[in-house]
Design goal:
The protein is mainly α. It is built from 21 helices and two strands. The chain is 76% helix and 2% strand. Strand 1 and strand 2 form a beta hairpin. The relative contact order is 0.17.
């Protein structure tokens, strides 16, 4: 759901730039601000979730980013929109770590790689929903001979606020993490015995976890560059450089979203057999041969096929991430540490989309910018993954 909100902006960048009489690179500053503020949200909401529970904080996250998404629809200027997207980043930043902790502390460790692929590709499902909404509703569509008018970018932001309704489902059907409940009970008992109220232990745990935590930040920097480097300016490339219609761009987005889901599921499952590291390295390196079709295809069909295979590999590598980060993190900081490393990686690469757009505008060559980005980040990701330690099958019940 946070992905749906995020990608609605990605698809609407050319239209927003046109309305506010500026370049796409200026609007992509909104992506920079979203990513820059996500670590703040990861820290704040992660610490709250480690102390007060995963479930209530997850509900607060969903409500927050949905309300801010709705406010974006009424932004009177680019400056206001940029400020709102910074706030959106703060709200969005907490959701991944809190959600991943709740998932992996609840599900059994058998098949954890497959679960990881399914969880992470919720992000791809959000991009599919955004792509479909853009294709259908941006310019409108014809139904039984009648033209249904488009809702434009502002209407899409209103549509993107619908995830707020998910809170009712979480309230009614989602249970609290059993690991967090057991840990909270132990901490309360220890506090009662020594007369000290220290319910989270977040500070000391993060200090002892520091070497691994720093490695995870580097790893997530490469991961974020891999995904955002292939996604953030790609719809703009298809619109501005390849000159495809919004309906075609939206359809390609749906198709590569499906490729993403399949990649996450396949490589997440393979990581149960191969280990997390080997699955990440294989997916990263296999993205490089796809570059000619993905960036230099001479038709919508070729570009669409390249996009599907590219995102199969990109999200194949990403499908391992939720399991790998949570397996490497101790229980008392499991909602804080993985999410914070994840979002700090996003902060380091928050300039990515804007830099790609600026380079493409300066040299008039989107394909070359995309090709160089993928080659560099795929090799960097594979190298970093090889340096990490394997953690498949880590016991999540230890509190």
């Amino acid at each position: 759901m946070d992905s749906l909100d995020f990608f609605i902006l990605i698809f609407c960048i050319p239209a927003i730039a046109k309305e506010f009489h500026t370049q796409p690179s200026a609007v992509l500053g909104a992506v920079f601000l979203t990513q820059a503020f996500r670590p703040v949200g990861a820290l704040v909401f992660g610490v709250l979730a480690d102390r007060y529970g995963r479930r209530p904080v997850l509900m607060a996250n969903i409500l927050s980013f949905s309300v801010i998404e709705l406010a974006c629809a009424f932004a009177p200027s680019l400056t206001v929109l940029l400020a709102l997207r910074a706030l959106f980043g703060l709200a969005m930043g907490g959701e991944w770590g809190v959600g991943a902790a709740l998932v992996f502390e609840t599900l059994p460790k058998e098949g954890r790689g497959t679960f990881s692929g399914i969880l992470q590709e919720g992000y791809a499902m959000g991009s599919i929903l955004a792509s479909g909404a853009f294709a259908l509703f941006f310019n409108g569509f014809v139904l039984s001979g009648m033209h249904v008018p488009g809702i434009g970018w502002r209407g899409l932001f209103i549509l993107g606020s619908m995830p707020a309704l998910l809170v009712f489902y979480v309230q009614a059907r989602v249970a609290e993490s059993p690991v967090w409940l057991a840990g909270a009970k132990q901490r309360l008992e220890r506090a009662a015995q020594v007369g000290v109220k220290n319910l989270s232990g977040t500070g000391p745990q993060l200090k002892s976890f520091l070497p691994t935590f720093l490695f995870l930040i580097l790893l997530m920097t490469a991961f974020m560059s891999f995904s955002h480097g292939t996604q953030d300016v790609y719809p703009t490339f298809l619109t501005v450089s390849a000159k495809l219609k919004p309906s075609t761009v939206g359809l390609i987005g749906v198709l590569y979203g499906i490729g993403s889901i399949l990649g996450g599921f396949v490589f997440g499952t393979l990581s149960e057999r191969w280990g997390r590291k080997r699955a990440i390295v294989t997916a990263a390196l296999l993205s490089i041969p796809v570059i000619p079709l993905w960036a230099y295809g001479h038709s919508a069909l070729m570009l669409g096929a390249g996009a599907v295979v590219m995102q199969f590999m990109v999200q194949g590598a990403w499908g391992v991430v939720p399991a790998y980060l949570t397996e490497l993190s101790p229980a008392p900081v499991r909602a804080t540490a993985p999410g914070l490393a994840y979002q700090l990686g996003g902060l380091v690469t928050s300039w990515n989309g804007k830099a790609q757009a600026l380079a493409a505008e300066r040299w008039g060559n989107y394909p070359a910018v995309l090709a160089v980005t993928v080659t560099v980040v795929a090799l960097a990701l594979a190298g970093l993954a090889l340096m990490g330690r394997e953690a498949k099958g880590q016991d999540m019940t230890v509190v």
